[in-house]
Design goal:
Helix content: 25-40%
Order of helices and strands: EHEEHEHEHEEHEEEHEEHEHHHH
Radius of gyration: 20 Å
Strand content: 15-25%
Distance between the termini: 56 Å
């Protein structure tokens, strides 16, 4: 397979590039050079995808597949799709489950209503990009909607946020309940599925994520405490007490989305189509351990991130309430 990755130096793009090289594929990464180099074995082409002139040289070879992880303006996604259409067999566009109109809905499927394609939100931007790719490639387009992606080289930091805090040890206020189900995908499992699907010639749209309840807040954070070997003590705070303290789910307490939230559907999406097409998700303990091993081996000290001592104390006082 001849694979072109638009990106290939950060998180998902990096995981895709590394996996493809291990398969023996011919891999090229087109990137600006501001986030480091792609993995060993990947041909590197520098350029700015917002400029048609920079994309033009990529149309001379022919690619069995192109993978695009762009999350910016939809016009940029449309520009790349149009430029590469004559030279590309399969176009893989990584979108987001934020495109769904009602994220409070349990059991969202690929056919659930989408947001409108005009506006500045992530959902509208991704929905417009999806449409541009479909308009250009038709049934040669594969659109993946993963949502929450965790694992080594994570960006933005979500699992890493928790690992850094638990590495400090002590009493850690964590949002309950412990059996609250979580739905996510390890970046390496997503990369593997995208490449398998491209190789198999799949088209259409897929929610590419673990099944609902793949793990829980309790299992995730217990794995974090075990991996960091810090002696951290998980102190479970009721949802009502977290809300009363003014701490925001997801943005201030990453990953956590309580029952009844307007976006709870992000942890309760139907992903059976992707699983029927070969998606396999590793245990949360492996994702956590491998992410900690990568984080602990990166240069420099581990920042002591978290909510801060004062806000944590407020949450700890809320234990037993609600």
């Amino acid at each position: 397979m001849r694979l072109l990755i638009l990106g290939g130096t950060r998180f998902l793009g990096r995981a895709i590039a590394g996996d493809a090289v291990r398969r023996g594929w011919q891999v090229t990464a087109f990137h600006r050079g501001v986030s480091g180099a792609p993995p060993d074995g990947v041909a590197s082409v520098r350029g700015d995808r917002t400029r048609a002139a920079d994309l033009a040289p990529l149309t001379h070879p022919t690619w069995d597949a192109v993978v695009d992880t762009w999350d910016g303006a939809p016009q940029v996604a449309a520009l790349a799709a149009a430029a590469l259409a004559p030279a590309c067999g399969r176009y893989v566009h990584v979108s987001s489950r934020s495109v769904y109109r009602d994220l409070s809905t349990r059991g969202l499927t690929e056919k659930s209503p989408l947001v409108h394609t005009e506006g500045p939100s992530l959902g509208t931007v991704k929905a417009a990009a999806e449409q541009a790719v479909r308009d250009t490639f038709g049934d040669r387009a594969l659109v993946a909607r993963p949502g929450l992606i965790l694992g080594p080289h994570e960006q933005p930091e979500r699992l890493v946020w928790w690992l850094r805090r638990l590495a400090r040890g002590g009493d850690v206020p964590v949002p309950g309940p412990p059996d609250l189900g979580l739905q996510y995908i390890d970046v390496r499992d997503l990369a593997r599925w995208l490449l398998d699907a491209a190789h198999a010639g799949l088209g259409g749209t897929y929610n590419v994520v673990s099944r609902p309840g793949h793990t829980t807040m309790g299992a995730l954070l217990s794995a974090c405490a075990e991996a960091t070997v810090s002696g951290a003590r998980l102190r479970w705070v009721p949802t009502a007490a977290v809300t009363a303290a003014g701490v925001q789910p997801w943005s201030e307490l990453p990953i956590w989305v309580p029952a009844g939230s307007a976006v709870r559907g992000l942890h309760e999406t139907d992903a059976e189509r992707a699983h029927a097409a070969g998606l396999r998700c590793r245990p949360v303990e492996q994702t956590v351990a491998d992410t900690w091993a990568w984080l602990a081996s990166t240069p420099g000290p581990l920042p002591a991130d978290g909510l801060g001592a004062e806000r944590e104390a407020t949450l700890l006082r809320g234990i037993g309430q609600g």
